[in-house]
Specification:
The chain has one domain: Rossmann fold, CATH 3.40.50. About 40% of the residues lie in helices and about 15% in strands. The chain has eight helices and seven strands. The protein has helices at about 15-25, 40-50, 65-80, 105-130, 160-180, 200-205, 210-215, 225-235; strands spanning about 5-10, 30-35, 55-60, 85-90, 145-150, 185-195, 250. Strands 3-2-1-4-5-6-7 form a seven-stranded parallel sheet, with helices on both faces. α4 (about 105-130) links the parallel β4 and β5. α1 (about 15-25) runs parallel beside α2. It is globular, with a radius of gyration of 18 Å. The structure holds NADP nicotinamide-adenine-dinucleotide phosphate. The site of NADP nicotinamide-adenine-dinucleotide phosphate has 31 residues, from α1, β2 and α4.
């Protein structure tokens, strides 16, 4: 499972799932670009842990929704490490609201970061992969992209229509792109987390009553941790999973299993 000298960009790696994934790649000896948007301290702490784990890297501030900033980030990565092997498209936000009072700004911000941001980063990564020496059908993949989506790419979510729409969009972005670039030996997959304890949902896991309610939705009866996602991401970007493309792995403690039917329905 050693990824050794893989060069990896992880967007939104200053906290939560992205931080966990970046540290896990660091432990494999990878070169990790730690992207962040506002939390420089968090990104620095991620980088320290990458180095402690035996990896290398640098932090890079960029808004994934801004084309020029995304292009500069990929240029910096290649000028530092010469190439790119893995993109972890992770950065994401929520701006929750009832539908009737949702502002255009709430809609646009979520779509721009969660969906357009993943498109912009994926496009830069694909251009770099396509520039590599063409692989023959018997070779392993020349590049991997993992889209961090959500169980809400298939579970509707009232009060979060902008977020669920962005994640549903990622599902078809991931699959269509996987189809387009599979003949070039580029693998594209998704990981859809269930409830993972991070800053995005700390108002839930820090509150005992809300946790009780949440557990009704998780047959496996525990909240997930960033490491649960990170282990899958490292494997999914490794040659161990070489024949997998265009697939989503739901890492959700059974949240997508219709938990309401757990007691015989
Ligand atoms: P988090 O701890 O709030 O982390 C979000 C990350 O995204 C931060 O590093 C943040 O950077 C970054 N970010 C936000 N806007 C950005 C932008 N415009 N450009 C670049 N980076 C930006 O949340 P998380 O739970 O780890 O979420 C990570 C991903 O997992 C998201 O796509 C989320 O939808 C998905 N997810 C999470 C859960 C869950 O239960 N936690 C479940 C399903 C899916 P700064 O802090 O530096 O601004």
């Amino acid at each position: 499972m050693k990824t050794n000298n893989q060069t990896v960009i992880v967007t939104g790696a200053s906290s939560g799932i992205g931080q966990g994934i970046a540290i896990a790649f660091g432990k494999q000896g990878a070169n990790v670009v730690v992207n962040y948007h506002s939390d420089e301290e968090g990104a620095t702490s991620t980088l320290e842990k990458i180095i402690e784990g035996g990896g290398k890297g640098f932090i890079h501030k960029a808004d994934v929704g801004k084309e020029d900033e995304v292009i500069s980030m990929f240029e910096k990565a290649t000028s530092e490490y010469g190439t790119l092997d893995v993109l972890i498209n992770n950065a994401g936000i929520q701006k929750d609201s009832d539908f009737s009072s949702m502002t255009l700004d709430q809609w646009n911000k979520v779509i721009n970061t969660n969906l357009t941001g993943q498109f912009l980063c994926a496009r830069e990564a694909i251009q770099l992969f396509e520039a590599k020496k063409q692989a023959s059908p018997d070779d392993k993949a020349i590049g991997n992209i993992i889209f961090i989506s959500s169980v809400h790419d298939i579970i509707p979510w009232a009060g979060h229509v902008n977020y669920a729409s962005s994640k549903g969009g990622i599902l078809m972005l991931m699959k269509s792109l996987a189809l387009e670039v599979a003949p070039k030996k580029i693998r594209i997959n998704g990981i859809s987390p269930g409830a993972i304890a991070t800053d995005i949902n700390d108002e839930v896991w820090k509150d005992e009553e809300k946790m009780k309610e949440l557990m009704k939705l998780i047959p496996y009866k525990r909240i997930g941790l960033p490491e649960d996602i990170a282990k899958v991401a490292v494997w999914l970007a490794s040659p161990e999973s070489d024949y997998i493309t265009g697939t989503t792995i739901y890492v959700d403690g059974g949240m997508t299993l219709y938990p309401g039917f757990v007691d015989n329905g």
